[in-house]
Amino acid sequence: xxxxxxxxxxxxxxxxxxxxxxxxxxxxxxxxxxxxxxxxxxxxxxxxxxxxxxxxxxxxxxxxxxxxxxxxxxxxxxxxxxxxxxxxxxxxxxxxxxxxxxxxxxxxxxxxxxxxxxxxxxxxxxxxxxxxxxxxxxxxxxxxxxxxxxxxxxxxxxxxxxxxxxxxxxxxxxxxxxxxxxxxxxxxxxxxxxxxxxxxxxxxxxxxxxxxxxxxxxxxxxxxxxxxxxxxxxxxxxxxxxxxxxxxxxxxxxxxxxxxxxxxxxxxxxxxxxxxxxxxxxxxxxxxxxxxxxxxxxxxxxxxxxxxxxxxxxxxxxxxxxxxxxxxxxxxxxxxxxxxxxxxxxxxxxxxxxxxxxxxxxxxxxxxxxxxxxxxxxxxxxxxxxxxxxxxxxxxxxxxxxxxxxxxxxxxxxxxxxxxxxxxxxxxxxxxxxxxxxxxxxxxxxxxxxxxxxxxxxxxxxxxxxxx
Length: 468
What we know:
By secondary structure, the protein is of the alpha/beta class. It contains 14 helices and 18 strands. Strands 1, 2, 3, 4, 5, 16, 17 and 18 form an eight-stranded mixed β-sheet that branches. A hairpin with a 4-residue loop joins strand 1 and strand 2. Helix 5 packs across helix 8. The mean pLDDT is 97.
């Protein structure tokens, strides 16, 4: 195959570390070189294709380390397939996802993983990796963890919530953490006290409190903070690192900050929905609040300041989406008259990069921090860096030309996720993806999709790069 070269000229290249007006040379799917725009070196470069990025940002493709395509949940399945979901991700400037393969109770990790390989294989528009959800911690699944780490599945999610579905008790959690302390894997934790929450759900329904807003009221902030604290202590006992997913509450951030102040290898992720939405959305009338049911739940607006502060101080390191869409019609409606039957999850894989750019515009974070929390840190956290998450010689040419001045209105009418509503309907944001390259191939060209299912490849991962 002949060599293909692409040159991106005249943009502001932004990585987690630098901002530089530079030209970027891409050869055979990788970044070949960068040179300051207008220098003699850059002037000698020739290419098959030149992209003019003057007045635009040139940023690494986003890494969304928390998605759930085709996830079975509550008698239905997430509405985005790997094909529709990865295409929507590309439209939003995300070029790598790490999705969750699920072990079912009574089955092996291998069976669950193979089922997810089969769902994704040949269907993805962008590159993908997998985490493994452990639903059944026992002697054989603990042994399988070691084999998965060798295969490039280096992170394992456990749930302190959802008794009877994904729930693990403290003993199972401790055993999995002990295993990860020796095999190099990273335990990801859904930290909510599910046993206590189930009691509160039952009591609320008995009182006739059935509307979506009660979903937020029973899943108490203190039960997220308590579970976060408990997960940290169990990880300390096991001598294992810990990554807490979808942190939504100020009190949970405080637990992470206290652990990090002790120098513990504890990490936290939040999601755009917790930064931009609140219990006001859950309380929308006529069952509209069901659109916003996810777990951990949306919190009162005053928690947002603590989350932004955590992102600035690095007590929270990553923003992922927890993209798990269910259509309002026919799926979210399963919970009419009983909030506990509303499938948990929101669409967001297409909106994350834009919402975080809006946070730059609003002064919550810097441009480099935007790239750090959305691209570089998730890549490092999950063993994909520097192949993913940066623009540097040798890195995969996953590159986004981003127009920081374009205005757009987020809406279900124009998004590409396979879901009948937007969680951000009518919200105007500044900044828009213009062109996206995945391993050097243009998959979005001036707001036209030119990619294809099957371009995206499975990407094995090394272990967490924050651990020595």
